[in-house]
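Deliverable D4.2, example record:
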Amino acid sequence: MLIALLIATSVLSTMVHVVDRAANWESDVYAMTLWSSLVQLLLIMPFIGLVGLLPWNITGVLMGVAALTAYARSRWYMALSSSGDSLSRLLPLTHASSFIVLILAAVFLGEKLPPLAWLGGVVMVVGAMCISMEQPAATFKAFLLANVALALVLSQSLSRAINNVSYKWIFNQGPYDFFTIYFYLKVFEFIAVGTIVAASKSYRNRFHMISNPQAFVGARGLQTFSGLMFIFVLNHMDISIAEPISAVGPLFAIAWEWFDRRYHIVKRFGGRDPPQKPVSRTAWTLRLIGTALIIGGFLLLQIK
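Output generated by the structure prediction step:
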């Protein structure tokens, strides 16, 4: 049952990224970041009667996690708004957080690091490099410029790792309700996002700056539901088991892009994909190899 929920969570999360990429890539990054947090907060506000109180130490951890999440989300939207990178190229790198998760779990949760953890980490790095190398470059500087979006995704990967370990640490401190944890996280996240937008002095926070608000709100509903499902599962499953199962997301992204290129699904529903260069056979091969290596690295990380 829990494994099925994890797979469903990964599928829903991929669907959210697909919608944001296809329907809202022309939107302003700051507007998407702000309204994403606001809509998610409004979606769970009717259930405020289910929320309990938390001690100060747990509250402080959630505030820190929320601030990191807010920053990483804006970087992720910047990566999605890049016109030269497809979702199947960006999404696998977000799951490179597994190696970071095991290190943090060993330090803060007292879990033992599996013997093949380092090998799994190396395999994941090689997989990420395979995905990056599909953008040829004559010099190292040109290589970095061609992979700016991947650098932005790394912040999302780090945030994901810290978030997951923090959730598990909180649940280990006592029998806290998963909905309460999620509610406070969204409240603090909205405050952090508002602070980031205000500090930028750009005031790009109007809802009309989102190109497809209907699809945007719908994606936030899926994101909220998948987030609650993941925290619920994490409350009942070891993080070392949950991490590799959630790595199936990139495979769904690759499958989606293949179907969309073949059957033009986005256009049928009124969306418009960002302009991209034709994907060569070599690029698709590197994406598949990179994704397979990242997932293989997850599996190696779990061998005791």
